[in-house]
Amino acid sequence: MMKKQIIIIAIILINSLLFSAGKLNVVTTLSTYADIVKYIGQDKVDVHYIVQGDQDPHFVRPKPSFAVLLSKADLFISTGLDLELWVPSLVDMSKNDKIRSGQQGFVAAYDGIKLLDKPDVLSRSEGGLHIYGNPHITTNPLNLKIIAENITAGLEKNDPENSDFYRENLKKFQQEIDNKTFGEELVKLMGGALLTKLANNGQLIGFLEEKEYKGKKMIDYLGGWMKAALPFRGKKIVAYHKNWIYFQTLFGLDIIGYVEPKPGIPPSPKHVEKLVQEMRKNEVKVLLAANYFDENKVRTICNKVGAEPVIVPMFVEGAPGTENVFKLIDLWISKLNKAFAKMK
């Protein structure tokens, strides 16, 4: 009993050293949210995250050290859906009532985002069903602008004196996302808000191909990630899990099947064989998977059909060279382009 108490006291002391006096103490579930907090809060915040960048956020054990971290948090940022089902237990363990859902110290990152893949039927037979819609919202860079807005609102509520500072950094972040997504030239011509609306509605490429400006097709003004992704737009791929739907929708990939027969259910040999047949039939040459899934399984399937595996982190700091959201999305697009180029 005494040994357990000493361990708990040690954890409390260690975590108290993690946060600096006079700064807003922020804890996030995902490393991607933490990166956005750093961008907006800069030297006004101390931020820590729970889920590692190469870890599956569905499955996190509520450790006492996480609870202690949350006990000292002024602000806690979670997706707010049923992605991190371990969050309520962790918050209970922390005994920090101000970071509970609905309180001033809690931010639901998803708020305001149009959720995709809402189930028509709620049944356990459908696997790890997300009843509110697909929670993997961070794979569309345009969603990050909304997430940043929600984070900024949380920072302002808990540190109103620095509201102008946070708002200015939010504006810079959203502008950088627009420039990285569409290219600076097109953003100057059309504005980020209109481009975002067209892109999220699946109308941007068609619009740009039809319209002209100063004797040039508008599509020729497109830059950024949207231009970089044009080589694989409309291409068929297979994914491991339904965690790329927002990316798929924005960049126009055609995912014809999944390694998992249903979300969260391991594939049987029968399902794998059926998937292999579908890949051959559709001449699918790329398999996309987060790097927390079984790499051997991914490579085994690829070897059967001569496909290229694209194994990437879902979150910031999930692999070398993904220190922020911009580098992470750069990696996704460059890896896919390399894979498709290799399979020509």
How would you describe the overall organization of this protein?
The protein is α/β, with parallel strands linked by helices. It has two domains: 2-174, Nitrogenase molybdenum iron protein domain (Rossmann fold); 232-342, Nitrogenase molybdenum iron protein domain (Rossmann fold, 3-Layer(aba) Sandwich), CATH 3.40.50.1980. Helix content is 46%, strand content 13%. It contains 14 helices and ten strands. A four-stranded parallel beta sheet has the order 2-1-3-4, sandwiched between helices. Helix 1 packs across helix 3 (64-71). The chain is globular, with a radius of gyration of 21 Å. The chain starts with a helix and ends with a helix. The relative contact order is 0.11. The model is unreliable at 4-9 (pLDDT under 50).
Would you kindly provide a brief summary of this structure?
With 344 residues, the protein is an alpha/beta fold.
Largest sheet: 4 strands, parallel
What is the overall shape? globular
N- to C-terminal distance: 64 Å
Work out the number of β strands: 10
Strand content bin: 5-15%
Strand order of the largest sheet: 2-1-3-4
Can you tell me the CATH class of the largest domain? Alpha Beta
Q: How much helix is in the residues?
A: 40-55%
Q: Roughly how many Å is the radius of gyration?
A: 21 Å
Q: At the third CATH level, what is the topology name of the largest domain?
A: Rossmann fold
Give the CATH H-level superfamily of the largest domain: Nitrogenase molybdenum iron protein domain
Sequence stretches where pLDDT stays below 50 over 5 or more residues: 4-9
Total domains: 2
- What structural class do helix, strand and pairing data support? alpha/beta
Report mean pLDDT, rounded to a whole number. 92
Number of helices: 14
**N to C succession of SSEs:** HEHEHEHEHHHHHEEHEHEHEHEH
CATH architecture of the largest domain: 3-Layer(aba) Sandwich
